[in-house]
Amino acid sequence: MTRAAGRPDGRLERRPAERQQRGRLRRTLLAGLVAAAVVLPVSAAASPDVPAPAPAALAEATALPDRYEANRANLAEAARMAREAGRTGRAAKLEAMGADGTARFLAFDGRGKGRAVEVLGDLEGADRIAVLVPGSDTTLDTYQRFRAGAVALQQRLLAGHPRSAVVAWLGYDTPGTVSSTVLSTDRADAAAAELGPFLERLGRGTAPGARLSLLCHSYGSVVCARTSTGPAVTDMALFGSPGTGAGSAAGLPTGARVWAGRGGADWIGHVPHVRLGGLGFGTDPVDPAFGARPFAAGPGGHSDYLKPGTASLDSLARIVLGTAPVAPTDPEVSHA
Fold it and tell me: By the 8 A CB rule, do 164 and 320 touch?
């Protein structure tokens, strides 16, 4: 039996046809992302050399008020260091995050692109909790955009159920919208290893009978779909999703109900839903073949899901609250 031609280092070389197919897939996926980046509000990448203190060292048993206070102090110090170093743009973003002195961060790290986990609402008294996981290009420099969606969701939840809270979980290094990292699950796998234990700790600390829901946007849906969740997580909603890397909802490591929705003008629907050689994410979550429960997402675009007054925000709030969301219309769930 003839072996494929080898390389000098002893490893087998990929067949030309396989390399060409892989290259075409990469170019096709990147072309869609580049086209989208023209109209998406993507900020300049955060430089890894932004000076900032190490995160506050806190024991798991630290009371929430003490945790919030320690992270506010760390945030203020990060802003001071950035301003003294002449990084005025980053300093202004950090100062905005802590402007009113009442922000409640479960975690904060001002180094590099940064990480932040913020609570909106009374986490200890809530029995309906949404954990919001963002997608690509979400950093401390774009945090206010992410937070605005979390605030809109919290306000919508409170209108239907006073004991509601939102956790804005920027707990991983998001990939760039136009980069090779956004085409693979590598960042998602690393993030899932952080998100899973976080959800377990959150479930242990919430009110008895509290329901946790994961709301996952864009590349964040890849993160959620690769996260093992315990029984406290009752629902997982994927929106603006490029795919999950799995062929079906049944293949996800969760016992939660899995929902999927996409806005009528969301460019992500034009990204090829294929997976080859570790690139791409496979079956479209809004495709009936995936097996997720569909929800109405309205006519909006990729960045519109959490805007006040939208059908998508209403659907996501209903999922968190445990009331049936409106079924989608056919144009909303069309897939490439």
Answer: yes
